[in-house]
Write a structure and sequence with these properties.
With 378 residues, this protein is α/β, with parallel strands linked by helices. It is built from 11 helices and 17 strands. The radius of gyration is 21 Å and the shape is globular. The structure holds pyridoxal-5'-phosphate.
Length: 378
């Protein structure tokens, strides 16, 4: 089966992990800090805290921005559940904003009418690696005094207005995921980037049980040099040195990975653009998508056959996927908010299929995918 995405690991990646296994530190050693520094520099952000997943990084970000049970937050239904879960874990109430029909990204033009008295922040998602209209979002957030998190789990290496996603020029915190299907991998892993020192310190503490060892931040007099303080409730959200070493080596290849993804998308477009089977999603103006996903939107005549098409593609070895079931359709959210319905998200869900795209997808495998698609749709 050719999957919709797959990690691309070479001998240098493997060597970098083995090197850590032979060293003194398996975790909390020099590699995590080095990975954070290199990632922050790549994105032109001041600070970076690496976590054991993007899920933890998102939760930490909501916590650092003081989201709590007295608040609501606005987010998108077209994402993986962790985007909304992060805010709900802090006790806050989600408000789902509908998406743009042709990108699947949250529609910034619909946000203002959703803002309520208790709304504290917005969590945007650069769906499939295609950046949101961040300038518009930031203007809205500034006007209403809201905080902004970019769940850029799909978008490491993507660009907006000539800068890498992660610069935090248009948001308070950016979060990345390093799950194997993502732009680079650390097996499991994530990171939160920010330009704000106070947020950075909170993110660091959140990763480590709410503990600080920084004497300048102590509330009480230290008992001695062994002293540390746990100032709020958290848990172990750490990434380890083997993962960070893998991430460092993967980062060297990131720009090449993105170019390869974009080349593959172009080949799909050359082949299928005028066939009438499906539409390609639109790249945001002034942005460069990282194409973590290649979402296509089935045209009428095929929408009704989506179940069968999905099944046939998989049976013939093309591992398509659907991104995503609108989050509010999940039983947990239905119970929490039974009346939510976003028409564009529903239509997007009905039409969307994610086709295989990843940097080490071989050209003969891509040709095989093209032939299978042609056979199933014709
Ligand atoms: C948009 C989005 N946010 C968050 C996550 C969670 O990432 P992780 O698996 O690193 O916790 C994912 C994972 O698929 C995702 O797609």
């Amino acid at each position: 089966m050719i999957p919709y995405s797959h990690q691309c690991i070479d001998e240098n990646d493997i060597e970098s992990v083995i090197e850590v296994l032979r060293s003194d530190f398996l975790t909390q050693g020099p590699k995590v800090e080095e990975f954070e520094r290199v990632l922050a520099d790549y994105c032109s952000a001041k600070y970076c805290v690496a976590f054991n997943s993007a899920t933890t990084a998102l939760y930490a970000s909501c916590f650092a921005l003081d989201l709590n049970k007295n608040d609501s937050f606005i987010t998108t239904p077209i994402s993986f559940v962790s985007t909304a879960n992060a805010g709900v874990c802090c006790g806050a109430r989600p408000i789902f904003c509908d998406v743009e029909k042709n990108t699947g990204n949250m529609d910034s033009d619909l946000i203002e009418e959703l803002i309520e008295k208790d709304t504290k922040l917005i969590i945007g998602v650069d769906y499939g690696g295609n950046p949101l209209r961040w300038e518009k979002l930031k203007n809205i957030a500034d006007k209403h005094g809201l905080k902004l998190i970019d769940d850029a789990s799909h978008a490491l290496g993507a660009e907006y207005k000539g800068k890498k996603i992660g610069s935090c020029d248009f948001c308070d915190i950016t979060v990345f995921s390093f799950h194997p299907v993502k732009p680079i991998t650390t097996a499991e892993g994530g990171a939160a980037l920010t330009n704000d020192e106070t947020l950075y310190k909170k993110l660091l503490m959140f990763r480590n049980h709410g503990i600080t060892k920084d004497a300048g931040d102590f509330i009480f007099e230290p008992d001695g040099d062994w002293y540390y303080e746990m100032q709020f409730l958290s848990f172990n959200g750490r990434i380890n040195d083997m993962q960070a070493a893998l991430g460092l080596n993967q980062l060297k290849k990131l720009d090449g990975f993105i170019e390869k993804r974009r080349e593959i998308v172009k080949l799909y477009k050359d082949r299928f653009k005028n066939k009438g089977f499906f539409d390609f999603t639109k790249e945001t103006k002034n942005a460069k998508s990282g194409y973590h996903l290649l979402p296509v939107l089935l045209n009428s005549g095929f929408i009704e056959r989506k179940r069968e098409i999905f099944k046939n593609l998989r049976a013939k070895g093309v591992g398509v996927q659907v991104h995503y079931i609108p989050i509010y359709r999940q039983p947990f959210y239905r119970k929490l908010m039974p009346d939510v319905y976003c028409p564009n998200a529903e239509e997007f869900y009905k039409r969307e299929l994610s086709l295989p795209v990843y940097p080490c997808l071989k050209s003969e495998d891509l040709e095989f995918v093209f032939e299978v698609i042609k056979g199933v749709f014709e």
